[in-house]
Design goal:
The complex is a heterotrimer of chains A (about 210), B (about 325) and C (about 220). Chain B is α/β, with parallel strands linked by helices. Chain B has 15 helices and 13 strands. In chain B, the strands form three sheets. Chain B has a six-stranded mixed sheet, sandwiched between helices. The radius of gyration of chain B is 22 Å and the shape is globular. Chain C has one domain: MetI-like (MetI-like fold, Orthogonal Bundle). Classes of the chains: A mainly alpha (about 210), B alpha/beta (about 325), C mainly alpha (about 220). The structure holds adenosine-5'-triphosphate and magnesium ion.
Chain lengths: ~210, ~325, ~220
């Protein structure tokens, strides 16, 4: 096992990395379409929280290969079922963190926002969202990073991305392809993780906390 | 045009509560019941009472953070329900114990919140921030750019006060603003709040359950119990003449009262000016101030004469002097 | 519905095949989980008491970004060597067992470490104050208090192992995943479900029963 493939086929690895990013971006975009309203809903109606999270937890438990198998009959092969599966898995982390972030805001700050005369919209955009932002971004980070590693099996149904290096590596008995795919996926995930941690720390709420500590 | 602006001759009464009641949806009894109260313009009114008696509820109904089930509340003569809530609140300063400062905003941005909502320009806002920080005793250079988490509890309360004062509201609502502070910081802030009130002359409704704080700050004290008013009036009158056992228990532990009974009247007397006619009511100069106060309030006198052993008038005891002593906190006396 | 009908028919006609695959799947998962607990819970205990623990846990957390399939596939080139470890087993089975055991590691280490560190120092001090020895404090106070969170780690590991056991079909181990892989190869949709449904039920079953166990150790009756 060696790094030959990674070095000799840089361009191919880069192309697949880009494909991988596109696949994950699509999945996260689709995931957010559902997760944002769901997170807001269970913040507004806390009684729905437990049942919603139980259902999302159950979805998260479905083994990925089985999930793909369920989708092949109705949706077929390719990117589409992959995006659906990845978006479904991302729900748990996204919704849980959105709810935690939105309802974790100091109630005194919220009361004060109304007390000084903000409208509901102003209170949301100037106080609640900025204060929840670090947790919201943390939820996105966890979801995105795990999507990047999960988007490997999906190559099996021709969704493309770096996972194809793994399957081709097994098919053609080329260990260095497997290594190249693994290294690229892990590096991408760790890089995105780092980047989003930085973004998280640049939010006003985190900066305020950070400054206070130093 | 804002309804609250349209007044040429503002009514004498800043706030009127007219048979106001509030029962919480899940509450068994009413938090405030059939309460009527008039707060005159420029007065410093303190709501005093045990935990759960409805002080916060009454205060929050004033700026519509809570809406009453029945009754009417008028601010500057206008029914608050006829003004959009955000607009009403921007004109009423609001300070709470937990400060409610926005943790993600610097001190300057916290103070600028209402000016921004009202669309002030940057220059005016910035100048106002400096002015306010000076007013509450925080040098702008050192404090403008800090975050709330970088302030002590007392400093946070000062910023909360500055934020509430930002657009110079005629009315201020304060809910135990100094409740979480240590005794020394608390008295300092009390002094400064009194100074600010004297300087700016707003109407203040202030909630506390500390009788000494009430005596030190109030023009009028309103004592509440179970959602109703049990006694309202001059602080000295309330401490010396409680209407019932409940009130006397509440004010019995008052420092002010204890202090007054330890002071001889002659120590705070003013000299008799030549040619001045002394008051008719006389007491020996060794009488303690508490007893002298009882006489004055009982007979409705502003001043009494003090006499020496030989029966000559040696000085005059003014009600204002008693008031000043009653309000003096030990730290003022020592500083 | 037709697909499900077809899947049931297939199972009835190929009972032995199906039971074989189910057995292999369960055996592989249970072995991997038990082996994982045996190795990684003690490692988590060490991490919680050792100054290098946080660094170790940091590395283990970062390692979670490695895709599960990668662990399996990266070992594949070494199947001959691995096969010699346990000559009485199919070498690919041994390989999958090692891979799945490794995959059980991160949740077990991370949860064990966090659970033990999460016990309030005041509680431990109190236990010492009562005259317990160091090991008594651990076995009678710290570990029992940490048990629910450790069990949660076992639950995460179990679900991970059961899911990853389906991937073992890619390297020729006859788990339930084989129905899914050949279902796609033959483009037989019923066959896909023959693998997918039981595997999903296994994962959900493990999740639910271990969640129950977690509650049990949290509130001893
Ligand atoms: N949101 C609420 N829902 C239900 N009941 C409430 C709510 N807020 C207050 N109450 C009840 O209303 C009554 C009055 O409460 P309020 O907060 O006005 O008291 P308070 O005088 O301010 O007390 P404290 O000195 O403890 O702050 C209490 O019995 C309280 O339990
Ligand atoms: Mg209160």
């Amino acid at each position: 096992m060696n790094f030959d493939y990674l070095i000799d086929h840089r361009d191919e690895v880069l192309r697949l990395t880009w494909e991988h990013i596109q696949l994950c971006a699509l999945a996260i975009a689709l995931a957010l379409v559902f997760a944002i309203p769901l997170g807001v809903l269970i913040t507004a109606y806390p009684r729905l929280r437990v049942s919603t999270l139980v259902i999302l937890g159950a979805i998260y438990t479905i083994p990925s290969l089985a999930f793909l198998a369920f989708l092949i009959p109705p949706v077929g092969l390719g990117r589409q079922p992959a995006v659906i599966v990845l978006a479904a898995y991302a729900q748990l982390a996204l919704v849980r963190n959105f709810q935690a972030g939105l309802s974790g805001v100091d109630p005194n700050a919220l009361e004060a926002s109304y007390g000084v005369g903000m409208t509901a919209w102003q209170s949301l955009t100037r106080v609640r969202l900025p204060l929840a932002l670090p947790v919201l971004i943390a939820g996105m980070r966890i979801a995105i990073v795990s999507t990047i590693s999960l988007a490997t099996v999906t190559a099996w149904i021709n969704a493309g991305g770096l996972g194809s290096l793994l399957f081709d590596g097994i098919a053609f008995n080329r260990p260095s392809m497997i290594l190249a795919g693994t290294v690229a996926i892990s590096a991408l995930a760790l890089g995105v993780d780092l980047l989003l941690r930085l973004v998280e720390r640049m939010t006003p709420a985190s900066r305020a906390l950070h400054q206070a500590r130093t | 045009m804002n309804k609250l602006d349209g007044q040429h001759n503002p009514p004498v009464n800043a706030i009127e509560y007219d048979r106001v009641s509030k029962t919480y949806p899940n509450g068994s009894r009413s938090a405030v019941s059939d309460l009527s109260l008039t707060v005159e313009r420029g007065k410093f009114v303190v709501l005093l009472g045990p935990s759960g008696c409805g002080k916060t509820t009454l205060l929050k109904m004033t700026n519509r953070l809570i809406e009453p089930n029945s009754g009417t509340i008028r601010v500057d003569g206008i029914d608050i329900m006829s003004v959009p809530a955000p607009e009403l609140r921007r004109r009423i300063g609001y300070v709470i114990q937990q400060t409610g400062l926005f943790p993600h905003m610097r001190v300057e941005d916290n103070i600028a919140v209402v000016p921004k909502l009202l669309g002030w320009d940057k220059r005016r806002t910035s100048a106002r921030i400096d002015e306010l920080l000076h007013l509450v005793g925080l040098p702008p250079d050192a404090y403008r750019r800090r975050y709330p988490a970088q302030l002590s509890g007392g400093e946070q309360q000062r910023v909360g006060l500055a934020r509430a004062l930002a657009v110079n509201p005629d009315t201020m609502l304060m809910d135990e603003p100094f409740g979480a502070l240590d005794a020394i910081t608390r008295s300092k802030l009390q002094l400064e709040l009194r100074r600010i009130h004297q300087e700016l002359g707003q109407t203040i409704v202030f909630v506390t359950h500390d009788i000494d704080e009430a005596v030190r700050l109030a023009d009028d004290i309103v004592i509440m119990r179970g959602g109703r008013i049990v006694q309202a009036g001059d602080p000295l009158e309330i401490v010396t003449d409680p209407v019932d056992e409940f009130v006397s228990d509440l004010v019995g532990a008052s420092d002010a009262l204890r202090r007054l009974s330890l002071i001889e009247a002659r120590t705070i007397a003013t000299p008799v000016h030549a040619g001045e006619l002394p008051p008719l009511e006389m007491r020996p100069e060794t009488i303690d101030v508490r007893a002298a106060l009882g006489v004055m309030l009982g007979r409705g006198l502003e001043r009494i004469a003090l006499t020496g052993e030989d029966g000559d008038v040696t000085g005059i005891l003014e009600l204002d002097a008693v008031r000043t002593v009653a309000r003096t906190h030990p730290i003022e006396a020592t500083v | 519905m037709d697909l499900i009908r077809g899947a049931i028919d297939y199972i009835q006609e190929n009972q032995e095949r199906f039971l074989d695959a189910l057995t292999v799947h369960v055996r592989l998962s249970v072995y991997a989980l038990l082996l994982g607990i045996l190795i990684f819970v003690p490692l988590g205990i060490l991490a919680s008491r050792w100054s290098g623990g946080p660094a170790l846990v940091g590395i283990v957390s970062a390692a979670r970004v490695v895709p599960s399939i990668s662990v399996l596939f990266l070992l594949y080139p070494y199947r001959r060597e691995i096969g010699q470890i346990a000559p009485f087993w199919d070498r690919n089975f041994t390989l999958a067992l090692i891979a799945l055991t490794l995959l059980a590691g991160p949740p077990l280490i991370i949860n064990t470490d966090a659970a033990l560190r999460g016990v309030a120092p005041s509680v431990l001090e109190n236990a010492e104050g009562l005259g317990m020895t160091g090991s008594q404090v651990f076995t009678r106070v710290q570990f029992p208090l940490a048990l629910p969170v450790i069990t949660a780690g076992v639950r995460t590991a179990a679900v991970e192992v059961i899911a990853s056991a389906t991937f073992a079909a890619f390297i020729g181990v006859g788990t339930l995943g084989r129905f899914i892989t050949s279902g796609l190869t033959l483009y037989d949709f019923s066959l896909l479900l023959v693998g997918a449904i039981p595997v999903t039920l296994l994962a959900l079953g493990a999740e639910v029963s271990l969640a129950g166990l977690e509650r049990l150790v949290a509130h001893p009756a």
